[in-house]
Amino acid sequence: MKRRYAMGSFLAGAAAARAGDEMSGPALSLAGYAVGGSAAEASALLAGITVSAAVGGPLLGALLDRSPRPGRLLARALALYGTGLVLILLSLGRLPLQLTVLIAVFTGLLGPALSGGWTAQLPRVVPRERMPRANALDAMTFSLASLVGPALAGVLAHLLGAPAAVVASAVLIALALPAAWTLPTARGGDRDRDRDRASDWDTDRDTDRGLDRDKALPSASASASATLTADLAAGIRAITRTRPLARATLASVVSCAGLGMLITCTPLLGERAFGSAAEGTLLLTCTAVSALAANAVLARRPRTIAPDTIIWSSTLLLAVALVLSATGHPVLVVAAALTAGVGEGPQLAALLAIRHRESPEHLRSQVFTTGASLKITGFALGAAVAGPLATHSLPTALLTAAGVQLVAALSFHAL
Length: 415
Prior knowledge:
Elements lengths: L6 H30 L2 H13 L1 H14 L3 H22 L5 H12 L7 H4 L11 H30 L1 H14 L1 H5 L6 H21 L11 H6 L2 H14 L1 H32 L4 H22 L6 H20 L3 H29 L5 H29 L1 H21 L1
Helix pairs in contact: 1-2, 1-4, 1-7, 1-8, 2-5, 3-4, 3-12, 3-17, 4-5, 4-8, 7-8, 7-14, 7-16, 12-13, 12-17, 13-14, 13-15, 13-16, 13-17, 13-18, 14-16, 15-16, 15-18, 17-18
């Protein structure tokens, strides 16, 4: 008799892979600076491994949805990502910077596997009635990774050198391979039933909207025979035509842009409030701890607040946090960091819950990885805008980020 896959294995694998991912960015930046002696080289590596995720997410999701054994495909993606990190390290100082950045770009294509690609497999692990709590626990692994990963990278870089931190991030990702490889596949009857439900639900939704059935999402049989391009188009339609999914995605992407602005400002904020740019890192630690605690409470009472309510209300909390941080007062800045975590952590858990609830089974992975890619893009755009603004005026940058969070709340209700 086949042993039942344990939720603990899923969470351990997710935590290890995501900690390795969170560790890889700071580690690569430190390694690039240590080897090349240039901040520009370090930022080029980080940009290269981040920007390509926007392209890789939808494609990886479509492949996972088409795969009869998505866990094994996920494990291969993790293995290639870890290998890419090691290749980047080996090429530093030995190959031209352009080639090293190109390796980083190809490695980054697989980045969404560690976030959306993994989470999309959760319904294969737990039954439907246990999904709310399992989803909150899964969201906690993101907060845990954001807390442990950068700190571990800094400690290892200090003790053993930046290259050791890159190797350690690859090792953490490798530790997740067994958990990914052994992920269960959906049983045929369950998969067919889920697809029938998705098909029936799509029919009702399109009827309510006055749409013809031939314009709705493709059926399970059509999806099986569709080309990859058609699958990609179907995934985009699943996000844009499903109102709860569309507005949660839009609000989270806009909110993530605001978070990108906040994180870009933290070194200057630490210097302004505490006299040291390094203190900005401690502010991010406060945010991660607060997010972890908030999701722990949510895991105990997962049905207390509807996910849709959490999405828009969390953006208001983030706006308040940004306004508090703009004051520059040390006590208020710490309060702002803690408040940001209370908003950020549950927002992610709520977003994942909405994706699980609204995604058609045969497009689930693509919805998750595409959503992850869009958030990464939003974060990058916010960070790019915040740099010049913060250089000119830190309070202006933070208040602008607060305005972005308000736009996120309005966009949720506008759709």
